[in-house]
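Reply to dn_fold:

You asked what the input looked like. This is it:
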Amino acid sequence: MKRWSAQRARADDACDHPRGRSAGGGGAAEGGRSLGARLAGGCRSAVRRLGALRDPERPMLFSVVFWVVLAATVFGPVAEAYSTIDLLLFGVNAALVLSLWPALGWTPGHAHRAAAPAFLAATLMLGFTGSYSTHLLLTLIAVANLAVTYGMRAGVAILGGVFTAVFAVTLMYGRTVLDALFQVTVIAVFAAFTLGMTSVVLEARRSREEARRLLERVRELAVAEERARMGAEMHDSIGHHLTVIKVGLENAERFRDRRPDAAWDEVRQAKELTAEALADARRWVRALRPLALDGHVGSAALARLAASFDGTGVSVAFEVVGRERPLEPDAELVLYRALQEGLTNALRHAEAGHVRGRLVFDADQVTLVIADDGRGHSHDTGGFGLTSLAERARALDGTLSAGGAPGGGFELRVALPAGARV
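and this is what came back:
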């Protein structure tokens, strides 16, 4: 791919700076510039069209084999000093093969699928117009492309028609039936081998796509599980506040005539509990925001999560130490949930004024540390949230520790292998 980009860049440069001579005065120079501009525009347009035809799924090995074999195939008849007519026919055949090569698609249902059988026929014709056997590798590439573009069944059916055509053309050239059968048999053996290899490649590609879909599904299920857990905790937290508020307001209604001071106390307590319930609701809304950023969590999402706690009365700082590397989605989710748990606990239980998060990338592991300057106890380290996080970390061959920090406050630390997988 890089090689193709470099070639295209050089072609664009050549188009932008066409070389030529201009003779005569200013009018000739002006005409030369006009002609040069037209040539440059046409050249750029041709390069763009050629680039649009190129399929990025084409295996690089096939490209290398194509150019090497095509060069060897063309060199043979030229070195043999064939007649002018034979060389002309062979040259037209080779030019056809060369022109069809960029149009070949390497994905099922490609827009230029008609090029596949045409390319196969053109490579087979090389054997009749001047090549002896070197072109057979080009034919194998054509067979593989046919199977990829049309599917195995359609590819086999088209090959059957090609075998019939090869048999008939061989007889038309005055050769015997045995020669025709030999030609078809050789091509069939090579085609069967190539189709088998192509089938393996296609199956591997399908398996890769299926694995990618399953990974996305697992990620979605993990997110759904986390949201269900948070929903249950939200019900317990806010539901408790609302229950107490309801009882307090009922007491205020009952005391309003006989004990008005007690009634107003109940109302004030209900107002305080309402403010706490509202703060809890806002925290849960932040926690339920989408986890993914373009399919990955990453440090950008962790920084955004830390920034979402602005305005809560707690100052939150987040930094990344070391060179960041891509992590597995499961590892990213654990880090995200650990930061979320650490920030929420610091806000709800620690009475902290400052929280600091540090994501450290070492050679063989990544570590997330969330430290606050609060009261320094364990913040319910045996609770469901930290217990679930510890289990997830162990499943990834990582560790989770939580407790008082040496300098005071509370610290939550998660360490995972750099290439963590489930």
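The CA atoms of residues 168 and 180 lie 8 Å apart.
Hope that clears it up.
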